[in-house]
Amino acid sequence: MRPLRGSRGRSVVVGTVTLCLAAGWALQTPGGVSLVVPQPNINATVAQNILLSVEYSCQGVATIEWKHVSSWGTTSIVEWRSGNYVNISTVYKDRVTTFENGSIQLRNVGMRDAGYYFVTVMEEHGTNAYGTIIVNVYEIIYEDLHFVAVLFAFLAAVSAILICFMWLCNKSLHLFQKKTTHKLTASTTEEIELETIEC
């Protein structure tokens, strides 16, 4: 006995509709936590302050935790429950400020602060959300500053030489005009004397 063609197709359709309804119901159930990381990459220089910015939303009370992972290991930075306690690691005690939206500010960053920053938002009902921010920290390259200083000194020297050259040209022109005026005056005087003698 062979199966009817339409029964197999109907069971697939019924299964798909049931699955879609279950997914829609799960999405509409209250609770859950969402987390947005607006700037997943941050570039900073040594001694700069940086803001590790996130935005979370949830129905209940959330616990926020930040960790730093780098080649030096994993370090817990801070953990707090919204409206309650704040537990900052002793390594970051004077360098971290927490914000109600889940963000933290890290002051006076160094080369060891480069790496991955993981934030976890845990809702009291057991729903979690995760985010990652990559931080690159660069040293101020003093060779570049040295190059700028040398270039500035060179331009200043060239400017001084050009100013001296222009001053000399101006002085020479002034002397030339003075001599020319003196010669013209002398020749005019001679002509007047000659005219007087001829008369």
TrEMBL record:
<feature type="signal peptide">
    <location>
        <begin position="1"/>
        <end position="26"/>
    </location>
</feature>
<keyword id="KW-0472">Membrane</keyword>
<keyword id="KW-1133">Transmembrane helix</keyword>
<dbReference type="GO" id="GO:1904891">
    <property type="term" value="P:positive regulation of excitatory synapse assembly"/>
</dbReference>
<keyword id="KW-0732">Signal</keyword>
<dbReference type="GO" id="GO:0005886">
    <property type="term" value="C:plasma membrane"/>
</dbReference>
<dbReference type="GO" id="GO:0030424">
    <property type="term" value="C:axon"/>
</dbReference>
<dbReference type="InterPro" id="IPR036179">
    <property type="entry name" value="Ig-like_dom_sf"/>
</dbReference>
<protein>
    <submittedName>
        <fullName>V-set and transmembrane domain-containing protein 5</fullName>
    </submittedName>
</protein>
<keyword id="KW-0325">Glycoprotein</keyword>
<keyword id="KW-0812">Transmembrane</keyword>
<dbReference type="GO" id="GO:0046847">
    <property type="term" value="P:filopodium assembly"/>
</dbReference>
<dbReference type="InterPro" id="IPR015631">
    <property type="entry name" value="CD2/SLAM_rcpt"/>
</dbReference>
<feature type="transmembrane region" description="Helical">
    <location>
        <begin position="145"/>
        <end position="169"/>
    </location>
</feature>
<dbReference type="InterPro" id="IPR013783">
    <property type="entry name" value="Ig-like_fold"/>
</dbReference>
<dbReference type="InterPro" id="IPR003599">
    <property type="entry name" value="Ig_sub"/>
</dbReference>
<feature type="domain" description="Immunoglobulin">
    <location>
        <begin position="39"/>
        <end position="138"/>
    </location>
</feature>
<dbReference type="GO" id="GO:0030425">
    <property type="term" value="C:dendrite"/>
</dbReference>
